[in-house]
Fold:
Amino acid sequence: AAALFCVLPLIGCSGVQSALDPAGGDASRIYWLTMTMTVGGILIFLSVTSLLLYAIFAPPERRAWLGSRRTIIYGGLAFPIITLSALLPYGLIVMRDSDVPKAGALPIEVIGEQYWWRVRYPADGDRVAFSTANEIIVPVGRPIAVSVTAADVIHSFWIPNFGGKIDMIPGRINRLNFTAERPGIYRGVCAEFCGDQHARMAFDVIALEPAAFETWRTEQAKPAQDPEVPLLARGRELFRAGGCGSCHAVRGTEANGQFGPDLTHVGSRRTIGAGQFPNNIGTLAGWIANTQHIKPGVRMPSYGSLTGEDLRALAGYLESLR
Ligand code: CUA
Structure:
């Protein structure tokens, strides 16, 4: 029963945000280091506890060897020195080369901001550069070279299924490399306390088959389409007249603000609010009207004075940007 109780917490250890369910990069090396340390630590703890009980309860003549010089030298000095000396190179090997980009790697730049993620795909071969937010799409099998920095305070970039954390520091570029080994949706988080909404600063990492990734990249590089449906055209006009374009860019329109997330293809993203809600007209409308209630402290004000119909038009327009 005790063993079962100890194993129960491990049930929650697989899934979209778990260092114990590696999907590429350094994650599996970190996983095995964790397992080695945990199992080794348990074995050492059990041995020491057994010796302690033996020392307390065994008859004096049978436990005399415990105090011998030989036991102290081998058990108290040699064993810890050898064990710790072996763990040091193991740990160093696990961390080795994780910041050196591999040949042919896909470059991606991620900038941590309070409280969201600016994601840039720089020009790559004949592919043009574009920006997105709160979502990193990667092809399976191709090395990814992520360079991270921050715009305001220190954040930390962590995708548990792909490797360790890396600090995002204003004015400095840090690098992290990984290769997604299987398609899927994974979750990344900010791992450094960065303000009121630190806990609500997440992002999706979506690993696609290479062909699907190329399709996605081609679509993202295109400018936004102007809506034809009257309601959505009204939403576009509200977006323009409301000054949304002074903070947000929608390529192909007059909106070219650089302060907030690029919304050119916001409708194609899985979630909004930095991984907080599924992306649909309802959550978009709720977000626009209540940002300061949902995530107090974000830079975007609540637009609570919009009528229901205006909100529907505006959210519908954003949702149509695919
Ligand atoms: Cu950004 Cu915590």
Q: What stands out?
A: The longest strand covers residues 106-113. Residues 27-57 form the longest helix (31 residues).
